[in-house]
Design goal:
The structure is a single chain. By secondary structure, the chain is mostly helical. The protein has a domain at about 265-473. It is about 70% helix and about 0% strand. The chain is built from 20 helices and two strands. It has a two-stranded antiparallel ribbon. Helix 3 (about 70-95) runs antiparallel to helix 19, helix 6 packs antiparallel against helix 9 (about 225-230) and helix 9 runs antiparallel to helix 10 (about 235-240). It is globular, with a radius of gyration of 21 Å. The model has no long low-confidence stretch (mean pLDDT about 95).
Length: about 475
């Protein structure tokens, strides 16, 4: 049995810092709670360094009785999650500075981030469920962090749906064990082809229900707009970005490793869910005037494109690299848009952004890059990611899904332009107070994320090969 603790440095860095931060924060005066934020940023940086070293040495392994895999997908996901978590931390500085529960905020963020990292390499159903819980429970508390009416309502909806689908996921794990007499993916791979078809089908649907909830996909998407609108903006940025990374990579690993030879037609199921998710997200976004709700429905549509890679997980070698690259590009682009929303905390509707290009040209430029990036406009990273996903869909035999995805991409331009057009129109009646910049850290996060969104598109040729490599059994 491989019990190599060094393989889990990124996860242990976040968990260890959370424990240290909780203890230290109990004694630090309120004006020095920022030290916990610095420790959180240091933990993310340490995780990024450890992951980079692992990727450079090319060492891949499974640890702790093969329940956790450290391979290409895990390491690429770690880079995206830890980099995104670092952006969320810097985005949150002004929001929680001086708050009576500032330490708790950073600790909760670290714990849910560690749960997301655990999802990436989960190679066993019990490990997958444990990671689901660790990623979910701290996030429920974060959504209600402000303790206002909208945040409390959003957290309640988030918790109730998470508890329901988490229980469903646990039931599915039990059914998988009954069908294959194992929870380890490689053992299920050999046992499930001989198991009863109906039992395997029900088990798969119920386990996928929990992962679809984390990703915010149809039919488990109802919480997304309410949470994005009711939670503090940095928390909304977190829950619409990082859980998707963990859930989608975990879903890909489950399908690719445990069910490649199953008689259950899960590729068609995932293709239909992808079509419904991208279409519903785009249609619902057409009528939004709240910027946070618009971004919420935008994230639902983005999950639809990402689900295409799961539908063709075993049909084409393009699936993995397109999934990993698109997740990185989406994370940078979505966080950039939310960073602008956080920086302009008083601007809540599309109309509040009127004349932004004149008052704050830098933030307006970031918003243009990020919103057009979410459409898939060159040379942003999502453009290259969508190109790869469309190619994977065609190569995997789902040309109709690629055509639908292209149609949805074109349609999405409408509601992003509804936000962009007011930026360049100016009226004296627009109150300048609604466009007051909240803080330097938040603005710096917006510029950094916008640069990354562009940089991933320009340097895509160097980044895409990082997604090559087989998953460990």
């Amino acid at each position: 049995m491989n019990d190599n603790i060094a393989a889990l440095i990124p996860e242990l860095a976040l968990l260890g810092t959370a424990v240290v931060g909780l203890l230290a924060g109990s004694w630090l005066p309120r004006r020095r709670q920022w030290i916990i934020a610095a420790l959180a940023a240091a933990a993310c940086t340490a995780g990024l360094i450890a992951t980079s070293v692992t990727m450079a040495t090319g060492r891949e392994q499974t640890v702790f009785s093969n329940t956790f895999a450290v391979d290409t997908a895990t390491d690429s996901g770690r880079l995206t999650v830890l980099g995104s978590l670092l952006l969320v931390i810097t985005m949150s500085v002004e929001t929680v500075r001086g708050h009576t529960r500032e330490t708790e905020y950073w600790v909760l963020l670290l714990l849910t981030g560690a749960g997301t990292l655990a999802l990436l390499g989960a190679n066993d159903l019990l490990m997958l469920f444990a990671a689901y819980l660790l990623a979910s429970i701290p996030a429920y508390a974060l959504v209600a962090f402000a303790k206002d009416d909208s945040g409390t309502e959003a957290a309640l909806k988030y918790y109730l749906m998470g508890a329901l689908l988490g229980t469903t996921m646990l039931a599915g794990t039990t059914l998988f064990y009954g069908a294959g007499h194992a929870t380890l993916y490689r053992e299920l791979r050999s046992a499930l082809p001989e198991a009863p078809y109906g039992l395997v089908a029900v088990a798969l649907v119920t386990v996928l229900a929990g992962l679809l909830f984390k990703a915010g996909a149809v039919p488990a998407h109802f919480w997304v707009p309410d949470v994005a609108d009711g939670a503090p903006a940095p928390v909304a940025a977190y829950v619409t970005t990082l859980p998707k990374i963990g859930a989608l990579i975990a879903g890909y690993r489950l399908l690719h490793q445990a069910l490649p030879d199953s008689d259950v037609n899960w590729p068609l199921l995932l293709a239909v869910l992808a079509a419904l998710t991208m279409t519903l997200g785009n249609l619902a976004a057409f009528f939004q005037t709240s910027v946070k709700r618009l971004l919420a429905y935008s994230t639902i549509s983005q999950v639809g494109y990402l689900l295409i890679t799961l539908a063709v997980a075993t049909r084409t070698d393009l699936a993995r690299q397109s999934l990993l690259f698109y997740l990185a590009a989406y994370a940078a682009t979505n966080l950039g848009a939310f960073a602008v929303v956080t920086a302009l905390s008083a601007a809540r509707t599309l109309e509040d952004y009127r004349g932004l290009a004149r008052r704050h040209p830098g933030l307006a430029a970031v918003l243009v890059v990020c919103l057009l990036g979410l459409v898939g406009t060159p040379p942003t990273g999502i453009f290259l990611g969508k190109l790869e996903i469309f190619s994977a869909a065609i190569d995997g035999g789902y040309s109709w899904l690629a055509v639908l995805a292209v149609a949805n991409t074109v349609a999405s331009l409408f509601y992003y332009l509804r936000w962009l057009a007011p930026l360049f129109t100016y009226t004296r009646s627009a109150p300048p107070a609604t466009q007051a910049v909240f803080g330097r850290w938040t603005a710096a996060t917006a510029y950094t994320a916008g640069t990354l969104a562009l940089g991933l598109g320009i340097a895509g040729g160097a980044v895409l090969p990082l997604g090559y490599g087989d998953l460990l059994p």
